Amino acid sequence: MTAPGTIRTSESPAIDDVAGDVDAGVERRLATRRGMLASVGGSAVARLMVMPVSAFLGIIVTRLILDNYGEASYAQYTLLVGIAALLPFTDLGLSAAILNAASAARDPRTDPGLRGVLISCMRLLACCAIVLLTVAVAIYALGYWDTLLGEGLSLASGALAATLCLAIFALNLLISFGQRILIALGLNTLVVLLGALQTPIVLVVLWLTISAGAGGGYIAVASYASTFLISAIAFVIAVRRISPTIGVALRESLNPRVRGERVFNVAWPMLVQMIALPIAMSSDRLVLSHLGSLDDLTEYSLAMQMFTPALGVLATAGMSLWPVFARARAAGTSTPFSPHAMAGMFAALALIGGTLIFVFAGWLADLASGGRIELGWPILVAGGVFIIIQAVKQPYGMALTDARGLTFQAACAIVLLPVNLGLTIGLTPSLGAPGPLVGSIVAVVACQLIPNVLFVRHRSRRAALADEAPESGAHHQ
Known about the structure:
globular, mainly alpha, single chain
């Protein structure tokens, strides 16, 4: 019964439906935002928790190797462990394709698109692993490890240890994508915690080796084996989480008649970034070595040793945003929340971290160098600004993780490489140790941050116009 004074029209139910849809949409956005904040915050907190523990255990590992096996064993250990850092591109960027497919899948257990992507990636990763295994065995058989790695490979066990390290690294390619699937499922915090097991595993193996009176030439192999074990644990968890997708994909990948999905449209731009960005940032020390003094090089190295963990925390938190944006794109939404607001939150966290590093830099420098290296305020300010810029860049970069967005970022990375190198070469003679950081700040802002912001805004405007077009058509009818 209609209340007195109430005018009832045929449009009332439609209005109620529209209001309900609006309320539901708002509720979904709020739920997405809450989940996203929980994922980002959980990942950052987990990284902050495990970081000091890993650093402390790493110091113990270093001390045990030096005290029990000497400097030659430690030099060989650090040299072999560093091989992995020289090969960040061995998965050909396929992790990006897997992460996007797993994030976009409505039901990862049955999604055919995800299964097709896994089939293609498994085949390609198997090819990469076979190539790496062949290279490792060939180098060992021809006796070229000493030539490639130099005097750091001083022990008799060095060549075989290097071969085993590269072989395990190759095998790890076959299962490491399990961690990407867990990230896509919103379990980035679990991935961080699993990664924290690496140093304790190495420490246990080292203790057992010392207790047994065995040689220390194969400690680096334990480091690669621990990485493989962590990948295996993540892989098993991923298999159970999205069963039977991975098992079916594995069986079908062995059948040449089964075709997979297209993956290189996402993989190749990711591969370009994996090659270009590390080269751009790692060239700073080389330039300082040639154009700066020894004091400049040691000051820069010590400062980056303090700022790098903060960059790692920001990168871990930023990775949590990738599946959020991927799911939004799959649902037909351009952005589930404002990247601009998220960039402000990341900047605030980086500002807090940079301030703490600035305040405690003197004490940390004395602790690390025994008072032999002093950090001036210019390099500390430059380092703080650098991590803020990298923090602001995270949400925009994660919003551009589809094929077109990654291609755009790859083009920016290619431009960044010569610009960063040129600025570093030009600024180092006059600024000294802060020169490379100042050059990186200018290069990242000009070649990555500003272009990414403009591209995200362009997409947002196009999405808004696309949303308005159907509404205006409906009103016209």
